[in-house]
């Protein structure tokens, strides 16, 4: 049944995500839901200890809460690792752990996990883009551009891929290529209603145009 085992836990999680995406500021309600979620998640894990898929899901969701709401990155990484040990072929869990490692400053560890995600799902656009950003941070700009181009080949309307490729091209002093990518990113962001991101990309593109 939907409400059996992890059902309620799933509902709690999606409620929290819904609130976060809408940037709601009802602190008391958010805190209450998060607290219930963590307690419920730990209880569900205990009750489903003989069910690896459900248990793996529980660890993964607990990792999301620890990382995104409580900013407990080490705890989140440990939860993702436990999930991976139980379900090692779930690409999204490697992606979650990679993002958390990236935020912790571990670019190499993040790259390893993004690569594992891509091995499991060769069309994982977000993993290509995020791996590119981590590679850029290590100075591997050309490799980063290759990842952005893979993402664009899979999803030609991904604004983030164009934006990040534009920044990488700028790092290589390719102002024309950077300007074209940033202009493209601005239009794609605008099409998706992301006005702030669109304005930022457009401002950079115009700045490059004036300097060229």
Automatic annotation (TrEMBL):
Keywords: Membrane, Repeat, TPR repeat, Transmembrane, Transmembrane helix. It holds the Pfam family TPR_11. One of its GO terms (cellular component) is cell outer membrane. SMART domains: TPR (SM00028). The keyword Transmembrane helix applies. The chain crosses the membrane at residues 26-46. TPR repeats lie at residues 91-124, 125-158. GO terms for biological process: receptor-mediated virion attachment to host cell. InterPro entries: TPR-like_helical_dom_sf (IPR011990), TPR_rpt (IPR019734), Ycf3 (IPR050498). This is Uncharacterized protein. The lineage of its organism: Bacteria, Bacillati, Cyanobacteriota, Cyanophyceae, Gomontiellales.
